[in-house]
Amino acid sequence: MFLNRLTKVYKHYSKIARKQQVACFRFYDHDLPEFPFAIDWYNGVVHAAEYKRRHGMEDDEHEIWLQQCRETIAAVLEVTADVIYMKIRQRKAGRQGQYEKFNEEKVERIVPEGNLNFIINLTDYLDTGLFLDHRITRGLVRDEAEGLDVLNLFCYTGSFSVYAAQGKARTVTSVDLSKTYLNWAKRNMQYNKVYDDEKHEFVHGDVIEWLDYMPSNKYGLIVCDPPTFSNSKRMDDNFDVQRDHVMLLKKLLKGCAEGGRIYFSNNYRDFVLDRDSIPAVIVKDITGLTTPFDFQGKLNRKCYLIEK
Q1: Looking at residue 52, what DSSP letter applies?
Q2: What domains appear along the chain, each with residue ranges and CATH number?
Q3: pLDDT tens digits, 242-270
Q4: Which of 165, 207, 246, 308 is the most exposed place for a label (fewest CB within 10 A)?
């Protein structure tokens, strides 16, 4: 059953990927309840994350089952099992889980996207460092960045920052709570040969707190992809995207230049935007527009364009 499903979906998605010249894509996401994986192809290597569940297997039995799944994936993709990296993906309270290391072994690869290259880590963390569902949104940022001051909040590994820099942004400011991810973002900039220490700033700190001190009316383009919930020890207070998004967006609009744009997204499944409380000229749901072919019908993420 798993083999048949993988064969079908991989053939379908890889064909579209070749046509669109996409080297990294998702081809399976919990399609079968008995095989709860999210499986991504990263230009020759595979990242397979098992959603944590009550599977009823003993540890040894589960390990054997995982190995069988690995061999099935390898057979369908015609790769060796050693290029398939498997993890158990469990829900974390807040974003700390994103920062926690799984093990000390570091397996990095360089993968292409949109005529750029990004460093991914296949072993150490919950995610690889490149969120594939934002592929289209990153392209929009590059297309619009020229001559603008760009702000990337909750910047993670800086993929939006790299796209903005390649798009000839006047300046790019990247803010995140994690030094690890800020260093990763800088490495991505350097690897793509777009880094300029006079134009590109990396700020280590709590984003919500930093917004109280951000320049007013400066940024022509702001990217903000906050966690659903965060209660990190390094933050003074917790953050809830449904409860706090109006407060957050009002602060962003203060920092936004007249006519400037905000790309605001989040992964909360039941998120409802309080449109009437947002003092902006344009508030547009662009979730459909920014959903890539490999996430159609499977994406919980919401994405909005907000114009001052």
Answers
A1: P
A2: 2-90 (3.30.750.80), 129-307 (3.40.50.150)
A3: 999 999 999 999 999 999 999 999 999 99
A4: 246
CB 25 within 8 A of CB 294: yes
The four Cα atoms 187, 193, 196, 201 give a dihedral, to 10 degrees, of -30
Q: Give the DSSP letter string of 180-248.
A: HHHHHHHHHHHHTT---TTTEEEEES-HHHHHTTSPTT-EEEEEE---SEE--TTSSS-EEHHHHHHHH
The residue-averaged pLDDT of 133-151 equals 98
0.70 exceeded by pTM: yes
If 0-12 CB within 10 Å is exposed, 13-18 middle and 19+ buried, where does residue 97 land? Answer: middle
**CA neighbor of 12 nearest in space, from 215, 25, 258:** 25
Phi-psi region of 195 (alpha: psi -120 to 50; beta: other; left: phi over 0): beta
Total length of the chain: 308
The distance from CA 223 to its chain's CA centroid, rounded to whole angstroms, is 12
CA–CA dist 30, 92 (Å, integer): 19
Q: What is the pLDDT of residue 275?
A: 96
